[in-house]
Amino acid sequence: MSLTIQEIKQSYPSIGRPQIIPSQGELVGGRIIEIFPEFGCYIELTQFSRKARIIWKNYTKNKKFNPRKLKLGSEDIFRVDTIGENIELSRIGIDEADVKDMFNKIEQSKIVHTMFSEYAFAQNITLETVYQTIGYPLLVESTLTIYDGIKNNSLRRDNNSILDKLLEKHFPISTVFKIRKKIKLFSTDGSGIDILKLVIRSTLEEVRYTFPGIVVDILYEASPEYVLYVEYTDEAVVDVIMDLLKQNGEKYKTIVI
Predict the structure, then answer these.
(1) Other beta carbons less than 10 A from residue 185's beta carbon
(2) How many C-beta atoms surround the C-beta of residue 235 within 10 A?
């Protein structure tokens, strides 16, 4: 049983605390369910299964915007402006990073909701019971979201074969890649080893902050050669580290190859 955003009529409590309506100023995900070209459109809020409204002046500042080109079912991120007889939304001034983060949370919630739905079906119990007995306690334990609680292995302590199988299906343990890459560092102004150490230290601090849980180091071999050592779940992180090295190298007059 695979649920889509259109098929799920209940809320996604796993996105945070269980609640009936959003808070003013909160970012919410939703899809367009009705379009009125002269006025605005109605949005079904993903996390709350409630209908909200957005007028065109709060949808975009683009004067060439044509509402007739919008498609029913299109998904987007909105900010709750006011809550009254209607929940009023806006898309103006939302940071792109917040949009990306919100879409990520919604996808995480859909994974949790699908797994809990399958568990409820297998156990012949209500979905509400699953959230109350398994999901909501994780909010207290992880202090973040149900998804985070599951990723932190909080459920793997339970000796429940059905739940274990669903965990392996929806939350497989990630493969950790171990990577060694030879690199070369040159100081262009004759500053010597101290400036190279500064470039390395600055880069490692930024990488460890950006990618929690990563194992990373840059080891000296023989001038000008070093070895970049990484243990992480995504091989592409090496390219990110190299870009950071080069950025810091430019700042401190160091060439990175």
Answers:
(1) 22
(2) 11
Structure tokens at 48: 């709350």
Residue 219 falls inside a structural domain: yes
How many domains does the chain fold into? 3
Is pTM beyond 0.70? Reply is no
Q: State how far the alpha carbon of 146 is from the alpha carbons of 51, 97, 180, 189, 230, in Å.
A: 24, 22, 35, 52, 29
Q: pLDDT (tens digit, 0 to 9) for every residue of the chain, 257 residues total?
A: 333 333 333 444 444 444 557 788 888 888 899 999 999 999 988 767 688 999 999 998 888 889 888 889 888 899 999 888 889 999 998 888 888 888 888 888 888 888 888 998 999 998 888 888 888 777 765 456 788 778 766 565 555 678 888 887 887 766 778 888 888 887 776 667 778 888 888 888 888 888 877 888 888 887 788 889 888 888 888 999 988 888 888 876 666 66
For residues 238 and 232, give the distance between their C-alpha atoms in angstroms, rounded to a whole number: 9
Name the residue range of residue 142's domain.
110-170
DSSP label at residue 76: E
- Burial label, 161 (beta-carbon count in 10 A; 0-12, 13-18, 19+): exposed
